[in-house]
Specification:
Elements lengths: L7 E5 L4 H12 L3 E6 L2 H13 L3 E6 L5 H15 L4 E4 L14 H29 L2 E6 L12 H21 L3 E8 L13 H14 L3 H13 L8 E4 L6
Parallel strand pairs: 1-2, 1-4, 2-3, 4-5, 5-6, 6-7
The chain binds NADPH dihydro-nicotinamide-adenine-dinucleotide phosphate.
The site of NADPH dihydro-nicotinamide-adenine-dinucleotide phosphate has 32 residues, from α1 and α4.
Length: about 240
Amino acid sequence: MSGIEGKVIALTGASSGIGEATAAYLAERGARMVLGARREDRLNAVVDKITAQGGSAVGIKVDVANREDLKRLVDVAADRFGRLDVLVSNAGTMAVSPFDELRQDDWDAMVATHITGLLNGIGAALPLFRRQRSGQFVNVSSTAAYVVKAPQGVYAATKTAVKVLTEGLRQESGPDLRVSLVSPGLTNTEGVGKGADPETAALMVKAREEIGLPPSAIASAIGYAIEAPDGVDVSEIVVRPTAQT
Ligand code: NDP
């Protein structure tokens, strides 16, 4: 099946920002969305908005660090719609965490969300994709995987892991599966500056508001990777604000 219409697409990190915009973009184009995130109130609001506009979406409370939660996300897609065509692993946390501050909970959260979370998604969806003899992984990395900037060493390392795991998966995926990496640059979402000290947070919010991409720019890049014709693997897309070095 090519295009977006009719596809069953599971997406993590759907409760805000890029995930919310991507859920809306894909639902508008006729995808049946299975959406995961931890904040149920925000997730339900996204589902309600899509449904009110005539789209198809279901929301599941998911912590990607929990293997069983990802299995449930995939099971809901399979039970309700009979298949899963795409898993978009978008959940992420952009903690600003200078090494000297020893915010080790932030380090753990980035490893758990970006690395363990991605692997949990692969572990949940790959057996179904193999049985179907089709499926697509779309993994969200970052330009931080290409250019490391202080104080984001841990974030950059975990997003580099997303890039490397995606390439490794692509090489093992064979002719039936598609594997895509989408790496956003600075995007104007609530996640930018979250948890930082007030001074840093203010600078980051200013930057994201002045030059950040609208989340819809990343949604359409993800849509491009999904709508490619069968047999065409859009392996890697990097989308930056023109003003970003
Ligand atoms: P947001 O903070 O708006 O969105 C992050 C999403 O991830 C939320 O829906 C959040 O939902 C979810 N999430 C975080 N941790 C978990 C978890 N453990 N389990 C399930 N869901 C989780 O930020 P963005 O939209 O900007 O971020 C989306 C992705 O884009 C991330 O991977 C981020 O690293 C990446 N990115 C963003 C850039 C930017 O400048 N904005 C630049 C480069 C990459 P909830 O809290 O409800 O669980």
